[in-house]
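In this supplementary section we document a worked example of the pipeline. Step one takes a protein sequence of length 378 as its only input; no multiple sequence alignment statistics are reported here. Step two produces a three-dimensional model, which step three serialises into structure tokens for compact storage. The input and output of this example are shown verbatim.
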Amino acid sequence: MKELLAHTEAHADDIVETIETLVRLESPSTDKAAVDRCGAVLAELLRTAGARVERLPQRDRGDHVVARLDGVGEPVMLLGHFDTVWPLGTLARMPLRREGDRLHGPGIFDMKAGIAIGLAAVRALEATRTPRPPIVMLWTTDEEVGSETSRAAIEEEARGTRAVLVLEPALPGGGLKTARKGCGEFELTVQGISAHAGLDPGKGASAIHELAAQIGQIERLQDLPRGISVNVGVVSGGSRPNVVAEEARAIIDVRAPTRDAAETVEAALRRLQPVRPGTRLTVRGGFERPPMERGPAVVELFERASRVASSLGRDLREGSAGGGSDGNFTAALGIPTLDGLGAVGDGAHAAHEHVELSALPWRAALVAGLLAALARHT
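The serialised model returned by step three reads:
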């Protein structure tokens, strides 16, 4: 393990160079051409690291990138994404810059530094001739917008692997994520009856008034002590102030820590009934990401990572996250999944987004060491 760390420390500048290369290639999820430009450079970096690379073509999103490396025993998957939430031109107002131990830039923490860490781990294993398992790396292009085009590929590539290591950002202080909430989005549409608000208000049935009543019902589904959050985040409806609203709708974000909790809150949303005569309700949507639950296999995988960290002179902690990642999909398949193995830093989706430069070598050594440990215990 110390030999792996010595290699990553000696090549810390290479890790930073990879990060800067990827960050300069702005890659907003909704701009296929920009994402593909970043993907082409990423593919070349992977080939240089000795991987066999395949691009999975997409019509409306960027092409996903799959890389494979030979090894011994059962394969292990490295998973992450190179799309970001930042539009083209963000670098003009959020340029790459160093401030002490921090390297700032759009998409650097979430999660282009994680990709560089994965590449550095692979290079360290190769350079030190440390046995590794077969590795499949899948870098996707639509995680920030729901993973609609990548989910099937994620699940297909994950099947048959013994573990999935997700290079998403670490928890504060470098902790790993052994649980993530499932994420759901629902749309509640109310149909009412329009009428003149002054001449014939009694002949109408206001969709907006009904929606207001339903929001009160929805709020009661929230159970923060159990980890269930329910948020009506977008509301729209009506046409003019003097017209009783014929239609109104709300978009609802739901987070749940377990499959049972997700099923319970989803069933409650679908059971909603109108309280005003003349109105009708329609509920659409569902949980787009199932919960990533902390089961025994995840605990065992974390303990293995903790032993690797200890051999590198580091204490490793674990925790949960309210947001989802593509690791939610692999965990739902029953594959041991460990998340948050990427960079230490802060500011995902925020103007102060940054990574800690001093943490990059040991994070790469951690990933390399965990891969080596999985190869030994096949």
